[in-house]
Structures are given as C-alpha cells and as structure tokens.
Amino acid sequence: VEVKIEVVIPEKERNKEEMSPNGKASPLIYKVNGTARHYHLEEHPIASNPYHNPKDVVEASVCHVKDLENGQMREVDLGCGKALLIKESGEFYAMGHKCPHYGAPLVKGVLSKGRVRCPWHGACFNISTGDIEDFPGLDSLPRFQVKIEKEKVYIRASKQALQTQRRTKMMAKCISLSNYNLSSTNVLIIGAGAAGLVCAETLRQEGFSDRIVMCTMDRHLPYDRPKLSKSMDSHPEQIALRPKEFFRTYDIEVLTEMQVAAVDIKNKTAVFKDGFKMEYNKLLIATGNTPKALSCKGKEVENVFNIRTPEDANRVVKLATSKNVVIVGASFLGMEVAAYLAERAHSVSLVELEEVPFKKFFGERVGRAVMKMFESHRVKFYMQTEVSELREQEGKLKEVVLKSGKVLRADVCVVGIGAVPATGFLKQSGINIDSKGFIVVNKMMQTNIPGVFAAGDAVTFPLALRNNKKVNVPHWQMAHMHGRIAALNMLAHGMEISTVPYLWTAMFGKSIRYAGHGEGYDDVVIQGDLDDLKFVAFYTK
C-alpha cells in the first residue's frame, strides 16, 4: 500500500514558529490508519536566519541585562510593535504581549513555573514555546528570538507577528478527502461549541489527517457564546470563533442545523432527526445544555426569550430599547442581560426566588453587594417570588404577574432560570448518564463505551482539586480544556484533566472572576472593601 503524505505549511509559519528549544524543527506525527509515523520538516539550526523575508524582521536593543530580576516581566517597544520580555531562572524569553483571547496586557498577569497567566480570564501560555496551555482562547503567542550582546538584551521579531500578537499552531489537513464515503467519518463531534471546536483543532494540531465532521443544531459556525449576554447586539460574524476559511483550510467539516436523534453504539452510528445516518470510528458528545422554560400560564405569548442564539440576543435588544423589560432569574445570564439593558431600556425588573442574587454561588454578602450595584443603576429587584402568569395583548406580552400579587409592565421578558443537559437523545444508547441527565466521564473524558468521549456543560467528571469528586462545571474555560483532553485521548495519549475551574462575569464595567470549585462551602472570608467592590472572597470548608 502506498501512502502519500503532503504537508502544506505557509512559508512564514514554517520559518517562524516550528522551532523547538534545541534548535531543530519539531517532528510532526501523522497517524495514518492508526499507525504513528514521524515526518520531520527540513531541519535548520536556530542560529541561521529563521525569517526568510528580511523586510519583515525588526531587531532592537530593549534593555540592559540587569534591568530585569528573575521572575519579572516587562512590556518592551521594538518600534513597530511591542513584545513581552520575561526573565526566569537567569534566562530571557520574548513573546507576544497581548492575550489572543480578548487582548489583555499579559504584563499585568502572573508569571509562575514557566507560564504566564492572563490577568482577565486566566488563559495560560508557556514562556519557552508561546503555546496556550490553559484556556479560554484558541491561539498561542508568537515567540521571538532573544540575544545578549555586551550586557544588552536584543529581541529579533517578525513585524507581522508583532502586529497580530497571535499564532495559530501548525495543523495537518485531511488526506484525500474526495475518497470518503459521505455517510462515514473517522471522528464525529456532536455539538459545535468550545469543546467541539477545540477537540477538532487539537486533533489537527497533533497531526491527525483523517476525516473530522462536526454537527450542530445551530445555523452558525462555532461562536463566542458568553458574549450573547455580555454584548447582546453582536452579530454572528463578529463573535465567530474562526472564520469560514479556517474550516475549509484545515478540512474540518461543519454540518449546521443538523440534530442527532439517537446514537447506536453497537453499529457506531449517529442517527439524525431527518433520518440521515453517519458511521463513526471515534465520537465526541459536546451538546451542552438546554435552557429551562417557564411553566406558568401564558408561557406561549410572544416576546418571551431564552437567550440561546445571536438572533435571540439581537431581537431582545431591539424590543427592549426604551421599553419595559422583565428578567426572570438572577443567574449569570439574567444578571448580565439586566446590566446590558439597564442603560437602554425604560425599566428593568428582575424576579428571583432567592433573597439575593448568586446566593448559592457567591454567598449572601457578595450577592448583596452586587445587588446594591445593580440598584444604583435603576434595576428593580423582586426577590423571593416567582412568575404566576404572563398576560398578553393581541398575542404580545403586556404584563408579568408575580405570585406575590404584584403586576409588572413588560414589553419583553428574558428567562434565565437555569438549564438541563441536552442528553435526552442518549437515553436508550447504553452510554452512562446520571440521575440529572449528565454524561459520566473519567479523567480522560471517556464514557463507559470505548471510543465514545464527552465534554463541556453536559458532563460530570472527576475534579482533581476536590479529591476526584464528580462535578459538573459549565464554564467556557472548562469546555475548552475538556475538548483538548478528549482529542489527545482519542489519539491514545493517556492525558488526564487537572485544570482549575475558572469563570468570569462582567457587569457595569466591573468584572467578577472566580477560580476553584466552592460547592458546599461553609464560610466566606472576605479581604478588601465589599462596598467598593474591590475585594477577594475565599470560600472555605
């Protein structure tokens, strides 16, 4: 059998990025028919000029060797862009200075054990390679050459990399896509959120060159879902995680508006709602969750929304402008929507069963401080009550009636009362699902069925920092990591998950960032000023 392998690498990527620390080009491993084979790119020593286009290169003296102590970082200007200079264990390193996720200045982050952690959302980068090692975000950082001459530190960098401040890892492509049967794939990914996309990208980064198919009920390619409630008037193309060309370039096929109705594990087949069947070799289930709907009288009236798609978010903003909005549920989604609409709507009312927002998550004192901030921005709270009826006029929402008897004027209503895992289609599959509907996986994101993996909001997994307690962590960062771990274990790397859960929420220009897993805490220790919202809270047990 003759196997032809073609590696296509953009010239600048080959020259700039594929260096390993020993100065040799890193080997690529392509798996062909399950067999690992090594292919080296052309080898050249690091001392030779790694930038083929001299016009694209800038070299500048940035400081004296004694200007930086070990463990220090400094943002330095090379004339046509900035870099982050780092000194650790007597060595100097230089790389991009902005986090590729949302552009945070990494100099304000934390340097520890050979990694820089982003100050905003916790993404983590290796200082030797620039590679992303914890999420959120998809791209790594460009890495620049450092040399010391006469006690001065020089950085040599590509102008383009200084301007883009990001680097997409080199990826394989699919070999002879035209030979495939349309109804079979090597890897099938159900769901096109962060977990599904990171899984597909990781497979390609690791040299996997067989067919990958992602399917989603959404009509869009993967997008930045947290922005739906934080930046509600964003259009789909503005929040796309990757452009259309990316999927074409790396042969990642995405089937939109396709819903899987059942999985036949015996025949390794996914059955779609329209009757189409697709065979797979490896399967990732990353279907996320489904928002809970209201069950009260009048729930079918028009202008009542769960924010599920960019269209939902855009429509709510349009309907809410200068009108009366009622939000049901002081969840992250409910509170973010309230904050976004407070300046735009005539009135914003928030209805919640608990006595303070986020009580279960942040505790009463933090919840009350956040509530005070919202009240100062004209958001009215109706606590310890729920909706008993939605009233309409000519089919459209007019009033929201509460169990307390209070009647609220409402032109639009947003429901954020939690979600359930979207796993109903797996009930008869034999895949292990717990009593709440979550898919049970091990530390390698494997289900009880060989070759079937699951990731993201729909799973419970063993959390290392809580003695491997099975937890569900529906955070954006965690979904990325799940997708990566699942991909590596599809390729038999034996990689276990050990990341720390991290989430953030942004409201009225304030950001609350949360690290760890505080479920079951019995005390909250607060340092700083809660009233001024400049504080750290420790959740202890």
Automatic annotation (TrEMBL):
Source organism superkingdom: Eukaryota
Alphabetized Gene3D superfamilies for the sequence: 3.30.390.30, FAD/NAD(P)-binding domain, Rieske [2Fe-2S] iron-sulphur domain
Keywords of this entry: 2Fe-2S, FAD, Flavoprotein, Iron, Iron-sulfur, Metal-binding, Oxidoreductase
Pfam families the record matches: Pyr_redox_2, Rieske
Gene Ontology annotations of biological process type: execution phase of apoptosis
Keyword field contains Methyltransferase: no
SUPFAM superfamilies: FAD/NAD(P)-binding domain, FAD/NAD-linked reductases, dimerisation (C-terminal) domain, ISP domain
Domain Rieske, chain residue ranges per copy: 60-155
GO molecular function, one term: oxidoreductase activity, acting on NAD(P)H
GO cellular component, one term: mitochondrion
Family under the similarity heading: Belongs to the FAD-dependent oxidoreductase family.
PANTHER family: APOPTOSIS-INDUCING FACTOR 1, APOPTOSIS-INDUCING FACTOR 3
The protein, known as: AIFM3 factor
Species this protein is from: Anseranas semipalmata
Designated gene of the protein: Aifm3
